[in-house]
UniProtKB/TrEMBL annotation:
Pathway: Protein modification; protein glycosylation. One of its GO terms (biological process) is protein O-linked glycosylation. One of its GO terms (cellular component) is Golgi membrane. This is Hexosyltransferase. InterPro entries: Glyco_trans_31. Belongs to the glycosyltransferase 31 family. It catalyses: a beta-D-Gal-(1->4)-beta-D-Glc-(1<->1)-Cer(d18:1(4E)) + UDP-N-acetyl-alpha-D-glucosamine = a beta-D-GlcNAc-(1->3)-beta-D-Gal-(1->4)-beta-D-Glc-(1<->1)-Cer(d18:1(4E)) + UDP + H(+); a neolactoside nLc4Cer(d18:1(4E)) + UDP-N-acetyl-alpha-D-glucosamine = a neolactoside IV(3)-beta-GlcNAc-nLc4Cer(d18:1(4E)) + UDP + H(+). The keyword Membrane applies. It holds the Pfam family Galactosyl_T. Gene3D superfamilies: 3.90.550.50. Keywords: Glycoprotein, Glycosyltransferase, Golgi apparatus, Membrane, Signal-anchor, Transferase, Transmembrane, Transmembrane helix. It comes from Poecilia formosa (Amazon molly). Its main location: Golgi. The gene is B3GNT5.
Amino acid sequence: MFMNFRRIHKRQCVHLLITAMVLCVLTVCWEELDLHVVSHMRSYSYRYLINRYDFLNIISSSGSVVSRSVTYPCLINHPSKCRAENGKDWDDVLLLLFVKSSPENFKRRQAIRETWGNESFVWSELGVSVRLLFVMGVYSGVAQRFRLQQALQQEDKTYEDLIQQDFINTFHNLTTKLIMQFHWSYMYCSQARFLMTADDDIFVHMPNLVRYLQHLLVSQPGTKNLWVGHVHKGAPPVRWKGSKYFVPYDLYPWPSYPDYTAGAGYVVSGNVAAKIYHATLVLNSSLYIDDVFMGMCAKVMGVFPMQHVYFSGEGKAPYHPCIYDHMITSHGHSTDVRSLWRAAIDFPASNSSRGFLGNLYCTAIRVMLLCRPYYQNTYSCTAAFT
């Protein structure tokens, strides 16, 4: 009996020790576990089982919570950007392209002007009219603000493609920047067939994008209600205070965001741009994550995002000619835009000349590059078979 008691006692001690260790690990890792597992389970349950976002209608209709978007004074503006050369008639603009930039990012803007954002190249080589505008606030640092503002004035005098309002250019003002874009387009370029918003570290394969938009206009004349990009469904708010995407419960108490596209780059049709403009007039704009706010506006207006496998999320597309055939956007290009542009235009998006073996080779390459076991958040594995 004495030996049995000792054995039981030792087993209990081992169990208690293991339990204590597990609890310690959970205590230390709970915030990360909640961030990556629990919050996603709650969010997906809300999105796919309940799928009700009636609170958005409450937010947009309740006078007690509506915060109309603040209008900031324009420091730099080009209201005639979308007019024809005579300055009187409106030009037939296929794509109005907004690039979100920061005052100090001159090199990024210059790289875009010389590559995929080059209006003259698009007109001469692709035969369509694209208007490029860089959107920004004022530099956050007080000491250097005056010097940078003078540099911006000189830059705009040269290129005439900046629009700037008098708000601080910070992450928490991204929603302000989004509202600025849709208000500008509604006031000065409402005739544009499509509108695109993109970051200044993104690469856009403009020939592929133009072909895609032209195909839409042919297959769906007067294309309406288009919102296309890299879609996030059932994404939960980040509750970890150490993240720049942290959103407190008092700002957004629900477990799931409406569906939205990654803010790195997406395209909407002209009528959707108008709908988003009207939504910003009545929807609470205090949520500073711009792509989520875009999802809220779209949900209120009955617009739903469409997934395109070659619009990237936060990831960078692999470098390979077989990828250039189809890519639309790739994120995370702050220094290599020119080399990527040269490679893209050297490999035109036409696989008809490759033949069966060439196409089979490219499919195999895309499978190896895109169908990897770990999460990349660039193009999905299904893109390999497109």
